[in-house]
Amino acid sequence: MDDLLEREERGSPLRGGDHYCRVTPSGGGGEESSRRTRTVFQTARPRFDGEEMTFSVAHFGVEFRIEVLDANTDRPVGTSLLTTQGLLQRQRDALSTESGLTLRTLLDPRSQRPLRGTVKLELRTGVKSGFGLDFFNAAKMKGSGDGVSREKDEGTRAGEIRGWVEVDLLFEEDVDLICDADPQVCPPRPPDDFNVDLIQIHIARIGALVEDVKKAADNYNYLVSWKDPALTFLSLMIFVFSCIRFDTEYVGSLPVLLLLLYMIYLAKVRRQGDFKQRWIQKEKDARIEAEKKMAVSYSVYRPVGCLDVTVLSGKNLYSRELGLPGSLFASVIWDPIKFADEKTRKSIVKSDQLTRGYHLVGMTTSGGLTANPVWAEMIESDETRRLKQLLPTTDFWAPQKEKNETPEAEDWPFVRFPILQPLEHGVKTSSKVLPWQSSPGAVIIQIRFHDILNRLPVFDDLLGEVILPLSRLVKERYVEGWFKLHENGFFESSSVPTLDDGIQYPVLEIGNDKPQSLDDKLNRKAMEPSHEDETTDGEHAITTIQGYPEVYIKISFRTPKHYVEMTADAEKEASIVIAEEMIRSAVDDKDSSLGLIGSSISTFNTVRGLGGSVQYVQNQLGSVLDVVEQARNIFNFADPRKSALIFAGLTAVWIVLAVIPTRLLILVGGLGQYAATFYGAFLESPKQKDTRSDHAVTTDEEDDSKQSPFATRVANFFTSLPTDEDLRRTYFWEARRVGERYRQKLAASKRQSRLKKLWRAQWFGTIEVKERRLLHANQTGRAWAWEAAFALIQGHRFVWWKSEKHFDDGEAPLGNIFFAGHAGLAGLSPLDLRELTPEEIPLVVCIFGRGAEGQQKITLLAPTRQIKDALEDAVLNVSDKND
Question: Which of 287, 300, 535, 791 is the most buried (most CB within 10 A)?
Answer without folding.
Answer: 791
